[in-house]
Design brief:
The chain has 277 residues and is mainly beta. 8% of the residues lie in helices and 60% in strands. It is globular. The relative contact order is 0.10.
Length: 277
């Protein structure tokens, strides 16, 4: 019995020596230290946002038998963190014209808009948004309109999210219009609950030329005739580091105008100078 215990102990001892010898590298060789593999750390949250400002202005004047003057100004601001974006924008359009020589200019068109919006990246290409906008256009049949938006967005083509991307949005919009004092308006106030479908694409054609287009469709959930469609294709050409020329065609379709006699489609073609900061 003692002999068997001795042989077992001897076997364990020799096995331990053998394993220890396996751990020691041979002379003249080095074993690379073990490196722990870890997944890449997520990008650090930005303490201060990246700020972007874009401003554009356009003017068109005519004289002679018909005198007219048209002015457009627009500004867009962005505050960009790692996963959050805050946007603010505003625009104003004014058109005056006189059809007879010597007559004073008469206002033939005017509209304005202000907006604020918050976007949050939830995961990868998927995110959410919420915003509020205010606008006025008495020539379209309302003195004041407020829009409240909320929904989700998804990048079909993410790119760099600046010069090359394709994004879609789906959400809900509540709108309230003040039509008091509008000649021909059938009601003083009007509210709508609509679904919102939106798609936007930007593509850099050359280092100095880029194209952008968006389409927004807003079907009223309670009245199928009240369909709004907004779209705008545009082309921008870089002139200097901070200055570019922009050509744009903006179209607005309203299936149920505030004033029944009004046309359902309005459009505006603009040529403007754009500066970025």
């Amino acid at each position: 019995m003692t002999r068997y215990l001795f042989l077992l102990a001897l076997s364990c001892f020799l096995g331990a020596v053998y394993l220890k010898a396996e751990e020691v590298p041979a002379a003249g060789t080095e074993t690379a230290p073990a490196v722990a593999t870890e997944s890449p750390a997520p990008p650090a949250e930005k303490e201060y946002p990246e700020i972007g400002l874009t401003a554009e202005a356009g003017i068109a004047m005519a004289g002679g038998n018909t005198r007219s003057a048209t002015y457009t100004v627009k500004a867009d601001n962005k505050w960009i963190w790692t996963k959050d974006i805050l946007k603010a924008n505003g625009q104003y359009y004014l058109s005056n014209a006189a059809t007879t020589s010597g007559a004073a200019l008469t206002k033939t068109g005017e509209n304005w808009a202000l907006g604020a919006r918050y976007e949050r990246t939830i995961s990868g290409k998927f995110g959410a948004y919420a915003g509020n906008s205010w606008e006025g256009n008495r020539f379209a049949g309302y003195a004041y309109r407020t829009n409240v938006d909320a929904g989700f967005q998804y990048y079909l083509i993410e790119g760099d999210r600046k010069d090359n991307y394709l994004v879609t949005e789906f959400g809900y919009r509540f709108s309230s219009e003040d039509r008091k004092g509008i000649v021909g308006a059938t009601v003083a106030t009007f509210t709508a609950h609509a679904l919102r479908f939106y798609i936007e694409a930007i593509h850099k054609l050359t280092p100095s030329v880029s194209a952008r287009a968006y389409v927004e469709v807003l079907p009223d959930m309670s009245d199928g005739q009240n369909l709004l469609i907004n779209f705008e294709p545009s082309l921008s050409v870089i002139l200097t580091d901070n200055l570019s020329l922009k050509l744009a065609f903006n179209g607005k379709f309203d299936g149920l105008p505030a004033v029944p006699a009004n046309k359902k489609f309005d459009y505006l073609y603009t040529t403007s100078l754009v500066t970025t900061f």
